[in-house]
Specification:
The complex is a heterodimer of chains A (about 350) and B (about 130). Chain A is of the alpha+beta class and about 350 residues long. Chain A contains six helices and seven strands; from the N terminus they run αααβαββαββαββ. Among the domains of chain A are: about 70 residues; about 150 residues, Heat Shock Protein 90, CATH 3.30.565.10. A five-stranded mixed beta sheet of chain A has the order 2-4-5-7-6, with helices on one face. Chain A is rod-shaped. Chain B has a single domain, classed as 2-Layer Sandwich (Transcription Regulator spoIIAA), CATH 3.30.750. Chain B has three helices and six strands; from the N terminus they run E-E-E-H-E-H-E-H-E. In chain B, strands 1-2-3-4-5-6 form a six-stranded mixed beta sheet, with helices on one face. Chain B is globular and about 40 Å long. Chain B starts with a strand and ends in a 6-residue tail after the last strand.
């Protein structure tokens, strides 16, 4: 038996046909009118069938439109996920690149004391050889020996002082570099750590005759992620050097630190450059926001600053600036980072 | 008789009834908010046109590509009016356009032709996404 959606209607039509035959016998004058009514019912049934089909077609179209919509939504979500991954990869690459810049800066810094030590050692070597020749020939005077002693004392103390400086630089660099790369948590004296971070920036600062004044109490110790702090300072300084100053203008950078309220470090970084246009202020922490894309800017420097401030340091960063009045960044973070911190 | 021309909107089709030439055309999509408001004037004009005694041939082109159930019923009523006029001797031709690959629209055309005995009915395939 096949299913028939309109079985009842067909049955009614069949009954009407039989009724029509009986009507012929008893009241044939009504037959034509009766047939017209039956025909109207037949047509109505046919129209009902068509309407059901039209309605089914519309439902099917709606269904496939919804499927298409869902497919596109998933495509868009996938594209968004890829975009986020690419963004994270770029942020990682940018961090590595800034580590590279740090290495280059420190290498440059170490080069000076090592160079001095090498030339002093070479000078001492020459003086020693000359004295040995005179001693072997038997014509070394008392004055020759006294002069050699002076040379040896001077050069030895220069060699020692410069090697010690190089050693100090390497030690501080090593710590900053390890902090940067490993993102390990540890306790550091803030003042000293800021100074150590600035060492790697020294060549860039000296190039433009920029100065940095640090005002930080010696007794502030933070138990946090110093690598993040070092990266933040480096990026802020590099941001100033890139944007704030006109060619040949010597800038004054200041870093002020206070513990206020107790348990919170408030670090104020400022430059006295040309300031940030008001229309850029809301976007400067956005990823890929840069005014120098053509000149190699990635637009990630301050984005990373923001990420590190709110991420590993569990703090916040704000910016204020007016054209011509320099830029001020205020970084606040807990002296002891809450335990659920994961670092970055 | 004055032609009836209604431009298409997002939900209603274009109506182009040139009564003098005997060519009537409905095209586009039809799912009006209020079926009576849209189809009322169309029916009135068509009824008045068919009421005038004439032997001039009439062509009706159904070029709707999407229509809702009320529009479908309105279409059946139009077809019924045309069928009645054709039965009384007027030469009337209906063309049902459907896009290629739209088999369900083609089948609907066959269904809608079921009650047309005096009207000459033609199915016409048109390129997809193109003006017929």
């Amino acid at each position: 038996m096949t299913f028939n959606l309109f079985a009842a209607e067909e049955q009614a039509i069949e009954q009407a046909r039989l009724l029509g035959e009986r009507l012929d016998a008893v009241a044939p004058e009504f037959r034509a009118e009766f047939d017209a009514l039956v025909e109207a019912f037949r047509r109505s049934t046919r129209e009902q069938r068509r309407l059901v089909r039209v309605s089914d077609r519309l439902q099917a179209q709606l269904g496939s439109a919804n499927q298409e919509l869902e497919r596109r939504r998933q495509e868009a979500e996938t594209a968004l996920a890829h975009l986020r991954e690419a963004q994270e990869a770029m942020v990682r690459a940018e961090k590595l690149a800034s580590l590279g810049a740090l290495v280059a800066g420190v290498a440059h810094e170490i080069n000076t004391p090592v160079g001095i030590a090498v030339s002093c050692a070479s000078h001492l070597d020459d003086a020693t050889a000359q004295l040995r020749e005179k001693a072997q020939a038997g014509d070394m005077s008392r004055a020759d020996f006294a002069r050699y002693l002076t040379t040896a004392t001077d050069t030895a103390s220069l060699i020692l002082a410069n090697c010690e400086r190089a050693s100090r630089l390497i030690a501080s660099f090593k710590q900053v570099a390890v902090d940067r790369a490993s993102a390990e948590r540890r306790a550091v004296g803030l003042h000293r750590y800021i100074q150590e971070t600035l060492v790697s920036l020294e060549p860039k600062l000296r190039q433009g005759a920029h100065t940095v004044a640090v005002d930080c109490p010696d007794d502030i110790v933070v138990d946090s992620y110093p690598g993040a702090l070092s990266q933040i300072l480096t990026n802020l300084v590099m941001n100033s050097l890139t944007h704030a100053f006109a060619e040949g203008q010597a800038g004054h950078l200041t870093i002020g630190v206070e513990e206020s309220p107790p348990g919170t470090v408030r670090l104020t970084y400022a430059d006295d450059g040309q300031g940030i246009p008001a229309e850029h202020l809301p976007h400067i922490f956005d990823p890929f926001f840069t005014t120098r894309r053509g000149e190699g800017g990635t637009g990630l420097g301050l984005h990373i600053v923001h990420n590190l401030a709110v991420g590993p340091l569990k703090g916040a960063i704000a910016v204020e600036s007016e054209p011509g009045q320099g830029a001020r960044f205020v970084l606040t973070f807990p002296t002891v980072t809450p335990e659920d911190g994961t670092g970055a | 008789m004055e032609p009836l021309k209604i431009p298409a909107t997002g939900r209603t089709p274009e109506v182009d009834f040139d009564f003098a030439a005997g060519t009537l055309r409905l095209s586009g999509e039809s799912y009006p908010d209020d079926v009576a408001t849209f189809f009322g004037p169309v029916f009135a004009a068509l009824r008045a046109f068919l009421a005038e005694p004439s032997d001039a041939p009439v062509r009706f082109d159904m070029e709707l590509l999407y229509f809702n159930s009320s529009s479908a019923k309105a279409l059946m009523n139009i077809f019924q009016m045309l069928e009645t006029a054709a039965r009384e001797g007027r030469p009337i031709a209906v063309t049902w356009c459907y896009e290629e690959n739209d088999e369900s629209m083609q089948e609907l055309g066959e269904d809608f032709a079921e009650d047309l005995h005096h009207v000459s009915f033609t199915l016409k395939q048109v390129p997809a996404d193109g003006a017929p």
